Amino acid sequence: MVFKTSLRNLANQTGRHVSPRAPINVAKLDVILNFAVDMMLSPLCLQMGTDCCGKGVLTNMCGSSSAKADIIPVDIVSNLMIVAAAHRTYTKYESIPVIHCCSGALNPVQWHFIVNFIERFFRAYPLNECYRIPSTHFHSSRFLFEFNFYMKHMGPAYLIDLLNAFWGPKIRLTRIYQKVLRLVETLHYFTARGWDFDSKGLLELWETTSDEDKKIFNFDVRQLDWDSYLFDYLMGVKRYVVKDRLEELPKARRNLSWLKLYATIFNAIIWWISVRIFARQRSRRYRWFSGSIGFLLTYIWSNYNFRPPVRLKSLEEYKQRTNF
């Protein structure tokens, strides 16, 4: 992210000193979504999306859920650059044309939709190695994020590292979560803000493109179906990055069912201990009632998603579409 921002600023400064007659286009891009690009430029971001969210390693992020994510698929970027370069060869401009290849103004998608889609996807198509129930929540409050992070993640990591120091393997979970926290801090500037870029140049270029080229080099962001695209993207991460096989999906779903059972038992024990400690002077009926209500609310919060539903493809539809 920092490299991308610095590179964009360098391009802006360089473009000011170039002659307007030079055969140059300036294409400003959003956050590009692509497996190869993610692995080369930002492997930790890709790991966060799969290991952290899909495997339940991280369940909370700090940012504004209503902010525009402003992401763009790499195939749209490639098509735009090809068409823009060809268009520039036979078109004269008084100044260097600037084209914003962005989704925010033409086909916006907010962070709350993305995190909701990720959670629903990984609960329907879980990863083989899943350590906790996949869950994604955005906190606009810094205090709430840090409270959840240290209570749900860093605290248990310290406890597990302490136990591993005596009886288990030398795995430092605290170091892993420190890296995750640094990554969250890096992404916080982008997840907490939204930008609006003028896409007039992209629309003008689209209108001047022939119908045949529009079919071959489609870069119209307005035609993008985010449900379909995010499903294919996450399924591609599952298959080609994490190396999960679709034939093992029933096994992964059984593993997730066991995790839900373990979480239910753990929550029941926590509520039983809490009631025994904080309500020991109350009547037995009161303890049973308060413990049951607390356990029931925790169970509903952990196992049900009350956010708007998303459209997930069936496995048969995905196989047919991708010629699996």
Automatic annotation (TrEMBL):
Residues 153-244 form the Fatty acyl-CoA reductase C-terminal domain. One of its GO terms (molecular function) is alcohol-forming very long-chain fatty acyl-CoA reductase activity. InterPro entries: FAR, FAR_C. Pfam families: Sterile (PF03015). It comes from the Eukaryota. One of its GO terms (biological process) is long-chain fatty-acyl-CoA metabolic process. Keywords: Membrane, Transmembrane, Transmembrane helix. This is Male sterility protein. The chain crosses the membrane at residues 258-279. GO terms for cellular component: peroxisome. The lineage of its organism: Eukaryota, Metazoa, Ecdysozoa, Nematoda, Chromadorea.
